[in-house]
Amino acid sequence: MKTVGDKGMQQTDLELNTNRREGRNGRGKEYGLAQSSLRGLNGCYFCSLHSIPSLVIKAEEREPSLDGRIRVPSFFNLTGMHREAEMGGSRVLLPLFMICFWAGWSAFLVRGEDPYLYFTWNVTYGTISPLGVPQQGILINGEFPGPTINSSSNNNIVINVFNFLDEPLLFTWNGIQQRKNSWMEGMPGTNCPIQPGENFTYHYQVKDQIGSYFYFPTLGMQRAAGGFGGLRVHSRNLIPVPFDPPEDDYTVLTGDWFKKSHTELRKTLDSGKSIGRPDGVHIHGKSEDNEPLYTMKPNMTYRYRVCNVGVRSSLNVRFQGHVMKLVEMEGSHTVQNVYDSLDVHVGQCYSVLVTADQEPKDYYMVVSTRFLKKTYTAKRIIRYTNGNGAPASPELPKAPGGNWAWSLNQFRSFRWNLTASAARPNPQGSYHYGFINITRTIKIANSVSTVDGKLRYAINGVSHVDPPTPIKLAEYFGIADQVFKYNSIVDDPSPESLEKVTIATNVLNITFRTFVEIIFENREKSIQSWHLNGYSFFAVAMEPGRWKEEKRKNYNLLDAVSRNTIQVFPGSWSAILLTFDNAGLWNLRAETLERSYLGQQLYISVLSPARSLRDEYNIPDITPLCGIVKDLPKPKPYTI
């Protein structure tokens, strides 16, 4: 076999048979889509989802088992069957029986298979110009932004990432829940980095998460240099969505941008200083361009999936001369309200429908920063196909004025569409979260301070640092006490405890399958944005002032949107509810990159006491080990 540095694997005795198909119009191309033709070889009756690292496998490894080991069932042992035949069985009927049995078993295995999407990513540096000034960026297969991943619910995604940078690399999949599979989270607390010149294969299933997401690199300040791309999860054909199929489906990644390189930004933060305000805004890689970003046919409706992939700034999005009908956010169908503009905070994704019902010509899609002393604006052309290149009006639609009260009221207008189907035929509102008893309340209070003269950000007085041994590996190998301490923060911090910041690995333990209330308290003057990996939560309330128990009477316990990223306005609080039913290790972080880099994040450990494959997958065989677990024998694998 070749090593990972050889960019591949040696061809072995058995290749999986695959059937390739192209993507459909209106849903984008699905590059490298391959569905295995035999579940017994590449499926999961006998294996965990992530135990097959490539398209080719050894014949003797054709059937990984649930416990992570390779096993061939005895009834497939053809040599033994022929031996029985030679000892007196029928030599005529037995081969016929074998053929019929194999055909029937293969058909049984194929029926329940979920499709596989295969990708190969070469991650390199390259020259980009988001603000019109050439600078070094991070490219995927030569693209900035990176390629969009098109998938459907329950698809298996396999991405072989080759790191051609001169620094370690990891990717995370913002909003994808990774059910039972935090091994594929791509965070420093869960995975060893992909070293320069090496590769790693991510293998995860998108499950029932119809919606709009994105991916990005998680180490250092790499996200400020690119490496991000869109990730769509479409509905399966049998599951309807609450709007007619659009003429086309467009992904728009937007965010603030710095002219300094990500390495310069990191050095600034390491020196103990803030990186300050951004230098501008980009819309899908450019702040302005004479060529159209997208085109629209007259009287047709288009879906735009808009994600804020920036570093620190909330953004307002609007279409010149057009309104937007909000239909989905971060995996949930919404009540279809119409908006002239939408505030999209860092890490959030919205899907809107825009109809080409105006005079045929060019129009601008406009994005501008919010809540900064200086407003930065970007614009990209949306062209009518029958407009004959008639230019857009130079008068741009204005963003909302005033303070953040407008944005708070807009949040309150968002409602879950209770009658829409989820990823299964049952309505979204069939899960009655408002009737579940809260078992624990956790306050998350952000703070800023200096430690040894250097800037640090904290949660409940603790500023996180990643240990050399990933937290998840330390847990799995049973040496957590040698790497970190659980529960270094308290659930209800006092104001005095927030004044002094302690630097430590911040890991919070939450009991499996408990229903928890989390209150984000922002006692600072800038807006915050928080993201939780591994889960969607119900964003039930958002108000100015301090949270008290009597505030629960103001919660939306009926149709709050289920999502994964929530903003908290200055001097305000936001409340979320969720059941911690996804075993694993999950990152809770400030989406403002400066803050998370300098410690405003933690990991939530959700351990299943059963240590069963029903709750969590075993560590994949392809997982690289590092730190103090590098040479340790693997623990006994989980079983049913």
Structure summary:
The chain has 640 residues and is mainly beta. It is built from 7 helices and 37 strands.
Give the secondary structure arrangement, pairings included.
Elements: E1 14-15, E2 18-20, E3 33-36, H1 39-42, E4 56-57, H2 78-86, H3 93-111, E5 116-128, E6 135-140, E7 149-152, E8 156-163, E9 171-174, E10 199-205, E11 211-217, E12 229-234, E13 248-257, H4 262-270, E14 280-283, E15 292-296, E16 301-308, E17 314-319, E18 324-329, E19 332-333, E20 338-339, E21 341-344, E22 349-355, E23 362-370, E24 377-384, H5 405-413, E25 440-451, E26 454-459, E27 462-464, H6 471-476, E28 502-504, E29 507-509, E30 515-522, E31 528-532, E32 537-544, E33 562-563, E34 565-568, E35 572-579, E36 584-590, H7 593-597, E37 601-606
Parallel strand pairs: 5-8, 7-12, 13-16, 15-24, 25-30, 27-28, 29-37
Antiparallel strand pairs: 1-4, 2-3, 3-5, 5-6, 8-10, 9-11, 11-12, 13-14, 16-22, 17-21, 17-23, 18-19, 18-20, 18-22, 23-24, 25-26, 30-35, 31-34, 31-36, 32-33, 32-35, 36-37
- Portion of residues in beta strands equals 25-35%
Low-confidence stretches: 1-111
Q: Can you count the beta strands?
A: 37
- Quote the average pLDDT: 86
- The level of helicity is under 10%
Count of alpha/pi helices? 7
Biggest sheet features: 7 strands, mixed
Q: How does the helix and strand content classify structurally?
A: mainly beta
Observed structural traits:
single chain, 640 residues, mainly beta, seven-stranded mixed sheet, six-stranded mixed sheet, 7 helices, 10% helix
Describe this structure in words.
- The protein has 640 residues and is mainly beta.
- 10% of the residues lie in helices and 33% in strands.
- The strands form eight sheets. Strands 13, 14, 16, 18, 19, 20 and 22 form a seven-stranded mixed β-sheet that branches. Strands 2, 3, 5, 6, 8 and 10 form a six-stranded mixed β-sheet that branches. Strands 26-25-30-35-32-33 form a six-stranded mixed β-sheet.
- The longest helix is centred in the first third of the chain and has 19 residues, at 93-111.
- The chain is globular and about 65 Å long.
- Residues 1-111 have low confidence and may be disordered.
